[in-house]
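Hi support team,

I'm opening this ticket because the web form for multi-chain structure prediction keeps timing out on my end. I have pasted the exact lines I submitted so you can reproduce it. The total is 791 residues across two entries, so I didn't expect it to be a heavy job. Is there a limit I'm missing, or should I split the entries? Thanks in advance, R.K.
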Amino acid sequence: MALLEVENLRTYFETEAGLARAVDGVSFSVDKGEVLGIVGESGSGKSVTSLSIMRLVPQPPGRIMPGSRILFQGRDLLGVSEAEMRHIRGNDIAMIFQEPMTSLNPVYPVGDQIAEAIRYHRGVGKRQARARAVELLRQVGIPDPERRAADYPHQLSGGMRQRVMIAMAISCEPDLLIADEPTTALDVTIQAQILDLLAELRERLGMAMILITHDLGVVAQVCDRVVVMYAGQVVEEASVDDLFREPRHPYTEGLLKAIPRLGKPVERLAVIPGTVPSPTAWPVSCRFHPRCPYGWDLCVEAAPGLFPAGEDRAEGVGGVSDGALVSGEDRGSAGVRTSRCWLERHPERREEVRRRTGPYEASRVGRAEAPAEHWHAASAAEHAAPEPERAPPEAPSRPLMGDPDTEEDVRR
Amino acid sequence: MSDAAGPRPSHPHAGSAGAVPGDVASTGDVAPPDAALDAPDDALLVVRGLKKYYPIRKGLLGRVVDHVRAVDDVSFWLRRGETLGLVGESGSGKTTTGRAILRLIEPTAGEAIFDGQDIFRMGDEALRRLRRRAQIVFQDPFGSLNPRMTVGDALREVLHVHRIARGAEADRRVHELLEQVGLSPDHARRYPHEFSGGQRQRIGIARALAVEPEFIVCDEPVSALDVSVQAQVLNLLADLQDRFGIAYLFIAHDLSVVEHISDRIAVMYRGRIVEVGKSEDVIRRPRHPYTRALLSAVPVPEPGRKALYAGRREPDGGPTPPPGAGAHPAARWEGCPYYPQCSHPGKDMECTRVVPGLDRKAPGHFAACIKESDVSGAP
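Hello R.K., no limit was hit. The queue was backed up. Here is the completed structure from your submission:
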């Protein structure tokens, strides 16, 4: 049984601009000891998803809609009392945020704050809690923890504050740690240290983790499995290897092609046209269709479901017949690959578009904001120009870049 | 922005890169002017010995007890139509450098020769003329756009202030600018809040373009943008450079982005440039231990491939000292500022005695490390 199962989670907000369907029918699961990445851009609903799991969505204006279920160790968190929920937070599920300064009390020494959490959840004595706090600070790599415990949050650097937050989060050895953009505000060298620390703690404590981030590099380094969110929905789910080797959803494909890669310069970046839609006005049917290079009539007429994808589709893994929707019971098994895209039902379309125009070819000035129809025409017209090499999805992954002097890698 | 002229800078020795106002010239770490690292004759901008010190005041009388050396003896050059990437972590002084060379903040010392004229010694009128040739694009253009002014009015204002165009001619130019940055002429009637982040950045770029500049400082222009929009803006900047031959000083903390857009890269650490060279050289053959540490820390979006410099990651020796710590009186450090974090196998006490200057390690490739050998064969 999965540690956490989120089923059809819908969290809506009343806003001046209308009803914002921030999270709109999200399902995924996390196994014991697993690191699940949730990737998405601003407004994709990834942070609201994590707040919903912790029941920290302010209500009103927020509302977790009926029919949503959040099963933690088999128990629906949406049904428990607030008192029980307070016990679960910290004890069983802990959370760290992007900016630790906002979650630390500025007028108390950090050691006291950790000790207080331990006393609250574990009911141990003052001195014992204090000793444990110092021990935790040591565990998260803070030098001279006895002295640092007496520091106030503002006396610590950003990386140190995040370490303190992590110490507090693991103080009760939770089964699940939710980390919402834990390294986004940090410098890259500090980020590397914090990611190493999280990996080490996960190994040692055997806790599961949900890592919420917009950074695909962080996902590739830390996660076992990935859920890609777009416009309040899960659009793709896969193991981290599968996702980066062969993204199935056009949005994921575009994201992976749009990021510059260190040590592998390209003449021109591929571009996803248009902008991230607003939660008060999601596009109808497929929510990605206005920006999609593959889109056709069907994408506007009907919303695609989460279809089994990639090799799963061909092999019909887990008794799911070809093309059938993945049902609730099938979710959570780590092997499942899904993509919310009609291409899974019409694979010929993918090949056709790739042949004809080349998806996500670099656009020229002025075309980037063009709607999908113009986009097709534009890419077709431009296709006469020599294009940068595009690795076909079936191609084996490129040689590792362990050796920075490998000439052909960089010249690509 | 057009009004950032202010009084003339008070730096009597601005001509010689080593000079600083009396009470700060105490460290003896001032490298001799190095001809701004082999500046070519056709350089558009040559910066030598740029310093920006902020006084630390103590006590009732606000006595100046020391200085935070935000930018400390920075030299570089830039050719027409070229992009120099300026990369560094928070507090490294990269933003201060970008603003100081346009005199948006007053430099403490140094010179910035732009097409033969020293920006740091320009009077009000010369500065106004400079603003028609050198512009800046900020991370958050929203903060610099008047919320009550339509985009068209904002652009027309720039054209008006710089006496470029009026009336129907200005309208025509506004439409042209919007099209150049990938927006539609209809957008001229809208207000800033009606635009997404990426579109606002396009407006910020259009405003910089209005004066047809030869040089633009891009200060973290894509850092606030979503991944899917970032590529649009990077491509736009590249296209505009191809089309108009604009030189960019591209300031960012994201190494992948900087590598993508830059012809050459300068790496800053605690107010100094510690390495500069062609992008390919700096990324693939870094010659400073700090650059290697930075590169090894970048998470690579390929599972299984750890990092560009896997195994050479900076050891987790606890925290990096907070920005500016080296300039703090209590933590004054006379040697290499990177010494405490450095993982160079050859590091020794020699490193603690002198602040290394930028030495040529290969043709066009400089690094401030005395333990890195010169492979160019030059003396």
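A quick check on our side: Chain A touches chain B through 66 residues (CB under 8 Å). Let us know if the file doesn't open in your viewer.
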